[in-house]
Amino acid sequence: MAKLRVHNFSMSLDGYVAGPDQSLEDPLGVGAEALHEWIFATPSGRAMLGEDRGDAVRSADDDFFEAGDRNIGATIMGRNMFGPVRGEWGASDWRGWWGPNPPYHHPVFVLTHHAHDPVEMEGGTTFHFVTDGIESALARATEAAGGRDIRLGGGASVVRQYLEAGLVDELHLPVVPVLLGSGERIFTGDAHQLEGYTADIVSSPAVAHVVFTRR
Prior knowledge:
By secondary structure, this protein is of the alpha/beta class. It is built from six helices and ten strands; from the N terminus they run ββαααβαβββαβαβββ. Strands 1, 2, 3, 4, 5, 6, 7, 8, 9 and 10 form a ten-stranded mixed sheet that branches. The radius of gyration is 17 Å and the shape is globular.
């Protein structure tokens, strides 16, 4: 059965997964780049940027980073992750942060309150815009994935909604030893938010990988 999985969703020690004041200049929020430095220190992360992988020894960080693409047939994300445009789309021709050939190479379902025609990109990625809620997006993504799993890409609000609805099968949070002080969280302080999940922790020199799996 297809699973809904969250991978490489970095979180600060004080619980923030994005910084404050997200904008075109700071798409992750002010200061949040520090949450993702562990990725770009790995050979896999350097290769994603088109840089030389070097002769670094593989680590747990590499394994977790690469697991995020394994057996994924579709992605769900929120509108804020897709881009900085807010409210009605208007005349905006925004096509995502990732250039003409996004790294997904499969259908991507963007949750939004404002309808938008599908956006077909190079490399097999098509962005579909879903206006009728998280269950509808999951149903469409599950059908499009053709038996493979669905990756839930974020942002914080979207992950929180799916988590609170009990729809997330696997949640991977690399906990990064930095403090952001403010921003966006996925945990609300509700003691029941992770009921029904087991947790495993794998540490590396850079982060602690916490994986919650639904029982």
